Amino acid sequence: MIPAADPGNLVDDAEAELLLRLQAGDEAAFTDLVDRWSAPLLRVALSCTRARALAEEAVQDTWLAVLQGLDGFQGRSSLKTWVFRILLYTCRAKIERERRVPPLSDLLGSGDRAVPAEQFLSASHPHWPGHWSSPPRAWAPVPDAAALGAELGRHILAAVETLPERHREVLVLRDVEGWTSQEVCLLLGLTPANQRLLLHRARSAVRTRLEPYLTAETR
Amino acid sequence: MSEVDDLPCNALVEMTTDYLEDALPPDERSRVDVHLTQCPGCAEHLSQVRTTIRLLGALPGERLSAPAREAVLQRWRSRQA
Q1: CA proximity to A198, closest of A178, A181, A218
Q2: Closest residue to A145, CB basis, from B9, B17, B58
Q3: Model pTM greater than 0.90?
Q4: Cα–Cα distances in Å, from A212 out to A208, B47, B65?
Q5: CB-closest option in B23, B57, B68 to A176
Q6: What ipTM describes this predicted complex?
Q7: Which of A44, A35, A29 is nearest to A81 (CA)?
């Protein structure tokens, strides 16, 4: 059988070897891939569809598409970019079909300030234009990762869910899943500057929403 | 290099992502660094941004349901047969 992929185009040797094993029908390799990537795939799907059943369907459909496309995969992009791109297209198609009602935040717009203007002195202030008038109140110390409580976790997820879709995608991939800026730009077709802008808006919105729960005197 | 802080806080809070991504030109990065040493409000704000990032990274992983996982693996097996 003529191998369809040219491993020289892939990102690294580990991925090239994985692809050869997959194309050779190695079930252990496929099972390992499913077990490693289903969690982040599901997380990204949930950032698109919000309905868990649809998100799970999207992940399953993605793996089936991967199965079907594996023999023809040329390795022009990395395996990860290819698989996650299939997921995004699958999710977006599902959303179109289900005619998802856009969240209010999409309709109202995300706002363009990290912090509301009223927390700063005006530009005409005689001494300190643009400086804090209401500086942020200190946050109480936040537990380490191992101790992240269920309640705080729910607040964080709720904050992420209010974000517009593009902002959510970037934030989930970068800050939740730990992808590099380059990987996210490749997957989503963004320039680094655009990606940073989306990330900035998303992080600012989440920080603002977490503020009431984390400010020291309310804990 | 001037140590005079001419960076207003409402400008700094829009630069936090570029700052953390190391995407600021060196002179702007210096201005931010100088400002942070002089402004507790902005230092606290940046600390909160960092905490937000850390909390997002600490979210527990998702999990594909067992039936969904099995369905995918079953499809693999039937293709190989």
Answers
A1: A181
A2: B58
A3: no
A4: 8, 16, 34
A5: B57
A6: 0.90
A7: A44
